[in-house]
Amino acid sequence: MSADTIFALSSGALPSGVAVIRLSGPHVPRVLEEICGGVPAPRQAALRRLRDPETGDLLDEALVLFFKAPASFTGEDVTELQCHGGRAVVARILEVLSARPGCRPAEAGEFTRRAFDRQRMDLTEVEGLADLIAAETEGQRKQALRQMGGELGRLYEGWRKRLIHMRAMIEAEFDFADEDDVPGSVADEVWIEASDLSREIQLHLTRSKSGERLRSGLQVVLMGAPNAGKSSLLNAIAGRDVAIVTEEAGTTRDTIEVHLDLGGYPVTLVDTAGLRADAGRVEQEGIRRAKARGETADLILWAVEPEGVEPDAEEAELGSLLTSGVPLWIVRTKSDIGLKGGTLPKRDSSGTMQEIQCSTWNREGMDGLIDALSVFASEMIAVGEAPLATRQRHRHFLKDCVASLDHALAQSHLPQELRAEDLRLAADALGRITGRIDVEDLLDVIFRDFCIGK
Ligand SMILES: Nc1nc2c(ncn2[C@@H]2O[C@H](COP(=O)(O)OP(=O)(O)OP(=O)(O)O)[C@@H](O)[C@H]2O)c(=O)[nH]1
Ligand SMILES: [K+]
Ligand SMILES: [Mg+2]
Question: Where do the annotations place Mg(2+) binding (predicted)?
Answer without folding.
Answer: 231, 252
